[in-house]
Amino acid sequence: MLMTAATALLMVLQQAPAEGTDWDAEFGVEEKVRDPVTGELPVDPYTQSDTNAGAKPYDSARLVADFGGREGIRRIAIRTVEMSQADPRIADIFAAQDMVRLKRTLDEQFCYLLGAGCDYTGRDMRTAHAGMGVTRTDLNALVENLQAAMREAGVPFAAQNRLLAKLAPMSKDIVER
Amino acid sequence: MTLLATCLLSLCHAAAGSAAADDRATQAPQIAYAPVLDSEQFEEPQTAAVPLAAGTGSATQRALQPLGPTSALGDDGFRIGKLRAFKRGKLLLTNGITTVEGASGGGIARWATIAGRQTGGGVGVSGHATAIELPEFGWRSYGVAIGIGDRLELSFARADFDTRDAGALLGLGEGFTFGQEVVGAKMRVAGDLVYGETWLPQIAVGIEHKRNRDGAIVRALGAADDDGMDYTISATKLLLAHSLLINATARFTEANQLGLLGFGAAAGRGYQLQFEGSLGYQLSRRAVIGAEYRSKSDNLGLGEDDWMDLFAAYALTDNVTLTAAYVDLGSIATFSDQRGGFVSAQVAF
């Protein structure tokens, strides 16, 4: 009885929050600001290393040529991301991520793995996919999009598979459930 | 008085609490997620639009182009409670085709693959019909398989083996047809066909219970039994770097010609370990060619030979796969050189 009365009184006495309260600050929400030059959102600090790419690169000029050289690889990486963003099966996973950064790092990773003369500056696969809840089904959808992008670019099937061969073992770091 | 004191006390508490909260708020984020908020829209650097390659290239390339969504059920299938039925998730051809015994695999060799187009948490089905035409004999089989997640496969197949003119020569009567039913189960125990470490194949263990429908006749031919159990362990891997599929299966069996001529021999020969191997080369996402070998034991002393085939499989749509093969089944029931054609169709959801 006493407590109820006290609570009721408190509720009456309670003040409305001041106008113009900065709720982001109240709740510790940090607004991420895109880098004015690269357009990327900041990520937690990490050690840059080619080993983050998750596999050793090929050393074959023929393979690079099959992918249309440096520029061809870039187009395939970007196209894969764009198709996945438009793919209703997996678009939701990409919606919450930084696509500017993904396009750059995915391109770097493909370029590095194919031995086309890039360094990989992104995070390792486990860190980069942490908390996304990616399933095997999602991964299959992404693989289909990558295959479609490579097919559009006229990459021979055996060469397509050689890139997939480098990526497939990384599934253990990407699939979470 | 008491009321006032309590009130004051509560107020103090509340005040202290909110002060502490303010403190924490300035020190560290309190919400356990990292929201991505754009202060302003960033103009992405414009990249050259990637042209679509549709309609370009050679006839072969066009033939291998995807056909788009073709499943009558759509890609999402439907839900029964928590069960997702027929939701497409598997990569093309990774459910294998169907063996003559109803399991997913090659044409004559069992693979470690799981039937159906589902992935983890889903349920899929597949049905097949197979015909083999040999100089003296004709084989017809049909069946269904259910795949549960990427874990379990249950299969049923019925086979008819028409002896045609040879039946009369064997004293069985012209057009006598041996029949059998096969109920199988297969469970994936480790690894993955496509993903994971390159050295770790998809490994599955399985059983097949076979029942011959002509018990009296197979006993007369010298078989000990009209039903029997096969035990299998299979390892299958797609070596992407070489576009190569490799399969090896060990089968502990007492079947004579898969069980069409019964099981074991009354004279005493019974269970033996046999080997099944497959090699496949992926021409495209939809097409694979390859060869298979299956060793068999000659329990009845009728000169039963090892089997082999050369096959080509093509995924006509995401759900329909057609297979054609040249098979060499050696000697069957004393008729040697049984070489011929094998055609099979599989529909999977």
How does this model look, in words?
The complex is a heterodimer of chains A (177) and B (349). With 177 residues, chain A is mostly helical. Chain A has helices spanning 2-13, 23-26, 61-66, 69-85, 91-95, 99-113, 125-128, 136-152, 157-167, 171-174. In chain B, the strands form 2 sheets. Chain B has a 12-stranded antiparallel β-barrel. Chain B has a two-stranded antiparallel ribbon with strand order 3-4. Chain B has helices at 2-27, 59-63, 164-169, 215-220; strands at residues 78-80, 83-85, 97-98, 104-105, 122-133, 138-148, 152-162, 177-190, 202-212, 227-239, 244-253, 272-282, 287-294, 307-315, 320-328, 339-348. Residues 14-35, 47-56 and 67-74 of chain B have low confidence and may be disordered. The longest helix of chain B has 26 residues, at 2-27. Chain B has 349 residues and is mostly beta strands. The chains are: A mainly alpha (177), B mainly beta (349).
Topology:
The complex is a heterodimer of chains A (177) and B (349).
Chain A: H1 2-13, H2 23-26, H3 61-66, H4 69-85, H5 91-95, H6 99-113, H7 125-128, H8 136-152, H9 157-167, H10 171-174
Helix pairs in contact in A: 4-6, 4-8
Chain B: H1 2-27, H2 59-63, E1 78-80, E2 83-85, E3 97-98, E4 104-105, E5 122-133, E6 138-148, E7 152-162, H3 164-169, E8 177-190, E9 202-212, H4 215-220, E10 227-239, E11 244-253, E12 272-282, E13 287-294, E14 307-315, E15 320-328, E16 339-348
Parallel strand pairs in B: 2-5
Antiparallel strand pairs in B: 1-2, 3-4, 5-6, 5-16, 6-7, 7-8, 8-9, 9-10, 10-11, 11-12, 12-13, 13-14, 14-15, 15-16
